[in-house]
């Protein structure tokens, strides 16, 4: 979800300024990235409604847009940085690095890389190679303070002792994020980068690398950076990729609308106005200003997300709503057989269902009573509704409903109201046993509209079945 929020802010920023959105796939981690994950990412972007001006499936002047297909480019740039003295080979083992870091911490000094291999003699290099050591490539940080203006956080300053030399190529020749992203930004002429706050500490390193790339004639400028606030989950902890509530697929399966989800995610650090939480994506694009993003962490509130999604469900045209519900009206979600689904009943009940849902997946339980031969009784609902005297009430309600006009929900309401009055009950308590008898639950769609759609014969048969169960 954090990735989606970042993509949303980049997309809205580019569209607001009529800019060019570049969609680049960072798939250099062979152990984690696969063709399946690549296709899932494209599918997610399409489902969310994001379009891009350059990238996979679209192409562009800076192709390819998958980093796994650009390895030769990174190797070439790394060699140029070495040749120009902006980078050097580091032969330190992990054990040596750990030992020196611990010593630095014990002495109260910064524990970053200490520059041990910065200026090795030819003899030292030969000795390391004779030991069979394979070096990594480190970037040589300049001994200067780095200051830049963050689009979200304002002016930030990093002193040299807090930004040591860092690795850009592993010992096996694989390029690291710290190299590939600045190189791609430079070659793709990226002007603005909006990304997560967790990458803020790498920005001064990358700015120094951009300067080196400018020196080599590879880059034209340093992009403007905006670092977006953390999204917090349960217990005010940063929402991790491993948290179940972080998975976009989970929200798709539950029936969140992309427009509802994006509306809520936009509120995690930004707002359209102080008194408007619900709005369309076009409204967001028109109003989006990166300087309005709040740098403080934003907490993910599932209940508010659901509420906003429910608002977007109600904003749909009824025909659009009926179509969006389709996946949850068939296997594997629907408990009824395909041949028992009745399109006319679905079309009739849909407008009433639309006013009640927070997520589309709720439709299955709300309409199952229409398509199942018998209602599935929720035992807690049965116990709650079928109190002493419920059998007498149901018999009276059946009698009143038998003679009612089944083309009018109001007439059905009057019948149940009259049954309740005959037993000294108000409508709310009188309709509860009827609802459970007909639908199996105490909570659901408007009862009298549901009775009309279900039909007289089935509804009365279910009241009879409930009476039989009570007598048993």
From TrEMBL:
Q: What is its main location?
A: cytoplasm
**Record domain Aminoacyl-tRNA synthetase class I anticodon-binding: where:** 320-467
Localization of this protein: Cytoplasm
Q: What class of enzyme is it?
A: ligase
Per UniProt, where does Zn(2+) bind? 90, 92, 117, 119
Q: Which UniProt keywords apply?
A: Aminoacyl-tRNA synthetase, ATP-binding, Cytoplasm, Ligase, Metal-binding, Nucleotide-binding, Protein biosynthesis, Zinc
Q: Which Pfam families match?
A: Anticodon_2, tRNA-synt_1c
**Which InterPro entries does the record associate with it?**
aa-tRNA-synth_I_cd-bd, aa-tRNA-synth_I_codon-bd_sub2, aa_tRNA-synth_I_cd-bd_sf, Glu-tRNA-ligase_bac/mito, Glu-tRNA-synth_I_codon-bd_sub1, Glu/Gln-tRNA-synth, Glu/Gln-tRNA-synth_Ib_cat-dom, GluQ/Sye
As its record notes, the protein acts as a catalyst of: tRNA(Glu) + L-glutamate + ATP = L-glutamyl-tRNA(Glu) + AMP + diphosphate
* Signal peptide segment: none
Please list the residues that bind ATP. 241
Is-annotated flag, keyword ATP-binding?
yes
User: Could you tell me the EC number(s) of this protein?
Assistant: 6.1.1.17
Q: Which residues form the Glutamyl/glutaminyl-tRNA synthetase class Ib catalytic domain?
A: 2-304
Q: Which cofactor does it need?
A: Zn(2+)
- Renumbered ranges of motif 'KMSKS' region: 238-242
Q: Give the record's family classification.
A: Belongs to the class-I aminoacyl-tRNA synthetase family. Glutamate--tRNA ligase type 1 subfamily.
In UniProt terms, what function does this protein have?
Catalyzes the attachment of glutamate to tRNA(Glu) in a two-step reaction: glutamate is first activated by ATP to form Glu-AMP and then transferred to the acceptor end of tRNA(Glu).
Q: How does it assemble?
A: Monomer.
HAMAP family documented for this protein: Glu_tRNA_synth_type1
Entry-linked NCBIfam families: gltX_bact
Entry protein name: Glutamate--tRNA ligase
Which species?
A: Streptomyces incarnatus
């Amino acid at each position: 979800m954090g990735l989606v929020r970042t993509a949303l802010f980049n997309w809205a920023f580019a569209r607001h300024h009529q800019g060019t959105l570049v969609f680049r796939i960072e798939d250099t981690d062979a152990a984690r990235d696969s063709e399946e994950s690549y296709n899932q990412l494209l599918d997610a972007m399409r489902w969310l409604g994001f379009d891009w001006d350059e990238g996979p499936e679209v192409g562009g002047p800076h192709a390819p847009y998958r980093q796994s297909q650009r390895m030769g480019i990174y190797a070439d740039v790394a060699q140029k940085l070495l040749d120009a003295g902006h980078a050097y080979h580091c032969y330190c083992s992990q054990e040596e690095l750990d030992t020196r870091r611990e010593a630095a911490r014990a002495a109260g000094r910064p524990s970053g890389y200490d520059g041990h291999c910065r200026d090795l003699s030819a003899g030292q290099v030969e000795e390391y190679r004779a030991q069979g050591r394979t070096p990594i490539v480190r970037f040589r940080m300049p001994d200067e303070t780095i200051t830049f203006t963050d689009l979200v956080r304002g002016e930030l300053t990093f002193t040299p002792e807090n930004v040591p030399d860092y690795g850009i190529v592993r010992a096996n020749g694989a390029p690291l994020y710290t190299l590939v992203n600045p190189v791609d930004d430079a070659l793709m002429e990226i002007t603005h980068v909006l990304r997560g706050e967790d990458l803020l500490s790498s920005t001064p390193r990358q700015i120094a690398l951009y300067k080196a790339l400018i020196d080599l004639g590879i880059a034209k400028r340093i992009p403007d950076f905006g670092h977006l606030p953390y999204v917090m989950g349960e217990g005010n902890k940063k929402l991790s990729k491993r948290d179940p509530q972080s998975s976009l697929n989970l929200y798709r399966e539950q029936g969140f609308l992309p427009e509802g989800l994006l509306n809520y995610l936009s509120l995690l650090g930004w707002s359209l106005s102080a008194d408007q939480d619900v709005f369309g994506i076009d409204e967001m694009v028109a109003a989006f200003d990166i300087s309005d993003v709040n740098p403080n962490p934003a907490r993910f509130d599932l209940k508010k997300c659901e509420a906003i999604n429910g608002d977007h469900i109600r904003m749909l045209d009824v025909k659009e709503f009926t179509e969006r519900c389709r996946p949850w009206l068939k296997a594997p979600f629907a408990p009824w057989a395909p041949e028992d689904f009745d399109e006319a009943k679905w079309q009739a009940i849909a407008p009433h269902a639309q006013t009640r849902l927070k997520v589309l997946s709720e439709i299955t339980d709300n309409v199952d009573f229409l398509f199942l031969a018998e209602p599935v009784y929720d035992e807690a609902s049965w116990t709650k509704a079928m109190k002493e005297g419920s059998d007498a009430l149901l018999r009276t309600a059946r009698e009143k409903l038998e003679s009612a006009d089944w083309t009018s929900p109001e007439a059905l309401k009057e019948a149940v109201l009259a049954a309740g009055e005959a037993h000294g009950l108000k409508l709310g308590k009188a309709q509860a046993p009827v609802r459970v008898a007909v639908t199996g639950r105490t909570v659901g769609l408007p009862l009298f509209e549901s009775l009309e759609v279900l039909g007289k014969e089935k509804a009365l048969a279910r009241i009879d079945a409930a009476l039989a169960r009570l007598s048993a």
